[in-house]
Amino acid sequence: MTSILKRFTNVAVAALVVAGSASLAFAADKEITFSGSGGVVGEVSKEVWFGPFEKDTGIKINHVAAEAKRMPQLEAMVKSGNVLWDAMEVSASDYPLGVKKDLFEAIDYSVVDPENKLPTDTREKFGVAYAAYSQVLIVRTDKLPEGKKMESWADFWDVKNFPGPRALRGRAEDNLEYALLADGVPAEDLYKVLSTEEGLDRAFAKMDEIKPHITTWWTSGAQSVQLLSDGEVYFCPSYNGRITTLVSSGIPAEIVWNGGAMHKSYIAIPKGTKHLKEAEEYVKYRTTNADHMREYVTHLPYPGWAPGLFEGMDQALAASMPTYPQNQAVQFAASAEFWAENLDAIQERWTEWLLK
Amino acid sequence: MNKKPFNLSKLILTGYFVVIIFYLTFPIFIIIPISFSNNPFLRFPPSNLGVLWYETYLGDSGWVESTLLSLKVALLACSVSTVIGTMAVLVLERQALRHKSLLTYFITSPIIVPHIFISLGMFIFAIRLGIDDNAITLAFAHATIAFPFVVLIVGASHRQLDPTFERAARVLGAGPVRAFFSAAFPSLLPGIVAAAVFSFFVSFDELIIAEFMMSGQQTLPMRIWADLKLEMRPTIAAVSSILIVVSIVGMGAAELLRRRSIKTLND
Amino acid sequence: MNAEKKITSTWLLWPALFMLVAFFLVPTLDILRASFFDPEFTTKHFVKLLGSSVYLDVLWRTIKLSIVVSLICAVIGYPISYFIVQRPRKQQIFFLFLIFIPLWMSVLIRSYAWMVVLGREGLFNSILIGLGITDQPVKMLFTTGAVYVAMVQILLPIQIVTCYSAMSEIDLDLIRAARILGAKPWQAIRRVFLPLTLDGTVTGAIIVFMLSMGFFITPALVGGRKDIMMANLIEFQVNQLNWGFAAAISIILLIGTVLSVIIIKRLSKILTRRLVGGGNA
Fold first, then answer.
1. Domain assignment of residue C197, yes or no
2. Which chain B residues touch A73 with a CB distance below 8 Å?
3. I need a labelling partner for C88 at 20 to 30 A (CA). Which of A222, B63, B119, C198 fits?
4. Residue C77, in any domain of the structure
């Protein structure tokens, strides 16, 4: 990266012989390292994707559970010229970042999707969308006033008719969109409005209204579910996949699809990988294999766009997917591009606003 | 001397001690019951009693391996940092060095530089050398952030040390090393032990550096955070409970062994 | 003899310096450089940082919170260390063991435990409502108070232990001697014991202070909307891969921390002088 470090490293390399480095040299030829989520997602992926992929292609997947610091790690690897990963998960907001910093290999669609079966908006230049996830309003139905139903962000903002503690996520993304929706902006105009100075003021003004009623600003998915489960808050946006656990543990809760923010997760290939061919093979498998994807969503409701995914899927299960036509129609597509462009400026204002 | 007020103040002090210990250990009384619930969330009081999360923990070799890895790394990190840190104290506290306070700030700076920078720097360093994803590298990285604590804690106890004994030992003909170990070391021991235990936990609970350095293997905090992203399952409560019980049992066993050995010595 | 001692002693510092330089200084400087070089020399990050009130505002909040936490720890911890040090050695080990037990729990789960206890439908509120003391749940969680409760629980052991290890060197006979010479118990403690132990207390408080300055998980989990720490801002910039700006924020944090520590040390010196020399109050 810079000269001090390089010089120092050279000296250190010459001076040190470290046994641990030897282990890398023995890595099998047909093996790729995949950096993805750990926890439940990792467990399910191992069973549904990595195992079958090895059986079908003979390529072994070495799964590295990297969480919050995936992008800084990737940048460090690319800059130091020693890229340890061959394929990786990239969240919607990280994708434009990686593109800007030139951290991904361009996707070769003649290999990944030769018959052009994937929807166009999932085929990005440096990554393929493999899963949709939504940040939707989750409502504790037992805490609603008699006979009422919360159906929109306008209702969430309506503290008179829907009293009770609420939480939002502690960041500007999604929240400003929710505020504009509550203020009556149609979903298709959201980013047009947000791009203007007046539009931004309008969103913050609407946020002012709800601010005193927000108990807390959550920072991790687990926290939002814990808040709902504890009865600490009654209404709170969270990931669509969390509802199943809540309901199965006996907590009456419901998703409001209307006004949900739909995001895409990408799978990308780090620039400088040593196993490009095998990595492309996996990208193809992960994004287009409908059978495994159908099995995956029975564990975690984060579906992709493999052609034929909904064919033969259980009706109730299908209806719980964010990409199910009826659900998708009432949500808005969160714009990663808008946020990549404007986040820095808006974040400063957001922090200032929180402290006020 | 009148005894009564003295005893009263002693009583108050003991009461105060009990209250503070209760406060310090309070989360344990919440977490152990939570760990015996079959709920998918942390719930207190626990309903639906069971040992589901213990089964999950013990049944998943990943969890157990992570725990063992963290223990291993922490033990190594704490040995390295304690030895190196104590050695540094002997110089810092005994020699008339120029710019000593500057040096002390330098030595304590790993505490105040945000770990994310240390992590990234170390990570780049390690992948260039090909020593990333290595428990020993991680232990040294942890030792680096733990050893300022050793310098501070042992240093504070060294400043209260009475130098007369060591001087006496030297006058009586002991070499510097022997004089140190026979005269100064025993008085420094509480400080050294405290510093060692503390640096053990600095490593044991460290997340960010581990997250950068390790890829194939996961330490316990990494494993806990991986779970947290989506849901807070009480497995974490089960892990904590097991660690606490094991440490109490270990302490009890050590005490028993000590008593028995004293007894055999006396017989 | 003097020369010989010097050689052996300075040698003892080398492993520490080597480890610091290799694992800390070189790698970290390399990253922090980004605040001034991007890649040419630039002051734009600092101009941007000082141009907005947010960063200094958050720095000030972080310092205030850390000072309160370290003061609470020092005040609560001192009598505890005193209590332990008075006991026979064997008991001391047992008490220290007790103090260390909570450290086996990850900081994360301890924060969640407080959420469960302090929440609207949590343990404390159930008790309060059950006893009829209040009929509306009291807001305890998501307040700065909750941050103090949780952070002191996490940091108190280090304060107690540092203070204890410094105290354990002090000859308790000194107090007895002072008493025999006619000092009242409180006077004996204030004039003799307190000045001798202040150094350990201050060291402990400084460690707690420095650690608090870098906290962000606990305040984010149990604190209110205004409990934003410098580390939160750094974290955000790092995730955006804005290394230069993140490094600039860190340097401001670093300066704030070092200045505060210098002030704390000065104040403690003045305090010691007052205790030993001064006033009859």
1. yes
2. 123, 212
3. C198
4. yes
DSSP result, A255-310: EEEEEEEEEEEEEE-BTT-S-HHHHHHHHHHHHH-HHHHHHHHHHS------TTTT
CB pairs under 8 A between B and C: 253
Q: Closest residue of A to B124, CA-based?
A: A76
Please indicate whether, in this complex, the C-beta atoms of B222 and A241 are within 8 angstroms of each other.
no
Q: Which residues of C touch A (CB under 8 A)?
A: 22, 26-27, 29-30, 33, 52-54, 57-58, 61, 112, 115-116, 119-122, 141-142, 220-221, 224-226, 228, 233, 236, 238-242
Q: Which domain holds residue C154?
A: 43-280
Provide φ and ψ at A304, rounded to 5°: -105, -150
Q: Which stretch of A238-247, B179-188, C239-248 has the lowest confidence by average pLDDT?
A: B179-188
Domain membership of residue C4 (yes or no) is: no
Residues with Cβ < 8 Å from B198, sequence gap 6 or more?
B146, B149, B150, B153, C157, C158, C161
Q: Label residue C265 left, alpha or beta by phi (over 0 means left) and psi (-120 to 50 means alpha).
A: alpha
Would you give the distance in Å from CA A308 to the centre of its chain? 23
The ipTM value here is: 0.90
- Nearest neighbour of A347 by CB, restricted to C115, C119, C236: C236
Question: Measured between beta carbons, which residues in chain C are less than 8 angstroms from residue A217?
Answer: 225
pLDDT in tens, chain B (267 residues): 444 455 788 899 999 999 999 999 999 999 999 999 888 888 788 888 889 889 988 988 888 999 999 999 999 999 999 999 999 998 888 877 777 788 888 888 898 888 888 988 888 888 888 888 899 999 999 999 999 999 999 988 888 777 777 788 888 888 778 888 888 888 888 889 889 998 999 999 999 899 888 887 889 998 888 877 666 778 888 999 999 999 999 888 888 887 887 777 776
Task: Write down the domain spans for chain A.
Answer: 9-132+264-325, 133-263+330-355
d(CA B220, CA B227): 11
> Which SS3 state, helix, strand or coil, does residue A110 take?
helix
Instruction: Categorise residue B45: left if φ over 0, alpha if ψ from -120 to 50, beta otherwise.
Output: beta
- Would C137 be classed as within a structural domain? yes
Query: The domain spanning residue C94 has which CATH number?
Result: 1.10.3720.10
Q: CA of C217 to nearest chain B CA: how many angstroms apart?
A: 12
Q: Are β-strands A166-169 and A214-218 bridged in parallel, bridged antiparallel, or unpaired?
A: parallel
pTM across the whole model:
0.90
Query: Rg (Cα) of chain C, in Å, rounded?
Result: 23
Q: What is the DSSP letter of A141?
A: G
Which CATH fold would you assign to the domain A9-132+264-325?
D-Maltodextrin-Binding Protein; domain 2 (3.40.190)
Let me know if the fold of A9-132+264-325 is the same as that of A133-263+330-355: yes
Q: Give the angle A9-A11-A13 at the CA atoms, nearest 5°.
A: 65
Residue C7: pLDDT band with limits 50, 70, 90: very low
- CA–CA separation, B32 and C136 (whole Å): 29
Q: What is d(CA C37, CA C204) in angstroms, rounded to the nearest whole number?
A: 37
Least CB-CB distance to C10: which of B95, B151, B237? Answer: B95
- Among C97, C96, C86, smallest CA distance to C168 is for C86
The backbone torsions φ and ψ at residue A258, rounded to the nearest 5 degrees and listed phi first, read -60, 125
**Mean local confidence (pLDDT), A19-48:** 72
Assigned CATH for A133-263+330-355: 3.40.190.10
Model pLDDT for residues C16-75, shown as the tens digit of each residue: 999 999 889 988 888 888 888 877 888 999 999 999 999 999 999 999 999 999 999 999
Partner-chain contact A245 B40, CB within 8 Å: yes
The answer to whether the CB atoms of A8 and C26 lie below 8 A apart is yes
Task: Select the residue from A8, A44, A73 to test the B interface by mutation, using most B Cβ atoms within 10 A.
Answer: A73
**pLDDT exceeds cutoff 60 at C240:** yes
